[in-house]
Amino acid sequence: MLYKAILVALLAAADAFQAGAPLSFQAPHSSSASLQQLVMAAKQVPHGGTLINTFVAPANKAAVIATATKTIEMTDRQSCDVELINNGALSPLKGFLNEDAYNMVVKDMRLPSGDILGLPLVMDTNDESIKVGDKLLLTYKGTQMAVMTVESKWFPDKPLECIKCYGTATIEHPGVRMVAMERGKFYIGGSLQGLDVPTRDFPCATPAEVREMLPGDADVVAFQCRNPVHRAHYELFTRALDAPNVGPGAVVLVHPTCGPTQEDDIDGTTRHKTYVKLIEETKDTPSGKRTKWAYLPYSMHMAGPREAIQHMLIRKNFGCTHFIIGRDMAGSKSSVDGEDFYGAFEAQDFAKANAEELGVVPVPSLNLVCVGDEVNFEYITAEEAKARGGEVKKLSGTKFRQMLRAGEPIPEWFAFKSVVDVLRAEWK
Question: Could you tell me how far CA 72 lies from the centroid of its own chain?
């Protein structure tokens, strides 16, 4: 019976693919777990067990759009959330959280199913007229992205959300500032019917597409970043392949977020251009041959420990078995006194505490520093540098951006010259 069910599912998927629909598998209830194992081979199991895909078949789009009672133009952040729900990056979600689920995630970091979710996924609005039962056509810069069925509408306790998710309620924190000053006063929850993705300057592969380019019999180590990749980053993620808890033959997936982030960060389109240049420069090196690249339309929250969990489960859905946790992962500083909101290893400790249940192995990043002169330099661990007694080179990201704006020369020990050339030409 299982083989018959598999054949039926494969034939149905082939017919849908020929018709232009996204390729997906829906197993019969009695054999869904077995079929999932066969389809996913030895790759990482999606969060919740099934890779969600809310996109409707092309032939059904017009009928779905016709059901909408109101059109909502989304913000950059909202569009990122919709795209990641639709393509399964936020599996097992099939839509925005309803009030009960929102309250559970805020307080306990869990969905009603028991699955972990680091941060709540909500649609916000100031529209008083939206009511339960409405069908909203969600658009973004000319793209009809989804139809949302409103199942819940409420006035959220934003201070509680900020305290629980960000560890603070002060607007000095960029995530708190976003919740308090950018989001609308109401939250609405409900399922999505996916329609399309926005046109971008850079491609954003879906979890299913990324899984197809990853090995099915080896560990996959994910590296998250929201900035151009500099030399320290490159050394960090390539050396992670030799970590003691990473198996032989592993590859690294460099998976930068290209959505909204902190106000002073370099924009996503420019960051993507630096990645393209670095790929070209390193593709034939031993490290480059073990490196895969993809881009994530994700909106950063700078939520430290809880955002580290969010990043881990998203990369789990993309097929990754391991995740590099850097110092002060997704951290932020006060806009008033410059003090860090989170400890340097707080995200690492939180990730380790939840790793077994989440099913993703955290790989603590090496504390690498640069020693030597401007020409002859190398990256070694801070412990080794201390033992040698040599001077450690330092340049902060803030200072780096200031030097770029001022047209000052950037030392090659800090950044690849090719990356700097792109930033000087593209970043304003």
Answer: 24
Token pair 């090196």: residue: 285
Burial class (CB in 10 A: 0-12, 13-18, 19+), 99: middle
**Predicted confidence (pLDDT) per residue in 414-428, tens digit:** 999 999 999 999 886
Q: What is the DSSP letter of 266?
A: P
Q: For residue 386, which amino acid is it? A: K
Q: Are strands 361-364 and 95-96 parallel, antiparallel or unpaired?
A: unpaired
User: What is the reported pTM?
Assistant: 0.87
Residue from 49, 89, 55 nearest 210 by CA: 89
> Which helix or strand (DSSP H or E) is residue 149 part of?
strand 143-149
How far is it, in rounded angstroms, from Cα 223 to Cα 285? 18
For the record, the structure tokens of 338 come out as: 């410059």
Contact assessment for residue 26 and residue 39, using Cβ atoms and an 8 Å cutoff: no
Side-chain half-sphere of 209: how many Cα atoms within 13 Å?
Answer: 10
Rg, Å, the chain Cα set = 22
The answer, yes or no, to whether residue 34 has pLDDT greater than 50, is no
Give the residue among 124, 125, 96, 117 at the shortest CA–CA distance from 165: 117
H helix or E strand, kind and range, residue 132: none
Domains along the chain with CATH numbers: 58-194 (3.10.400.10), 207-426 (3.40.50.620)
pLDDT band at 89 (very low <50, low <70, confident <90, very high): very high
Q: Which amino acid is at 179?
A: V
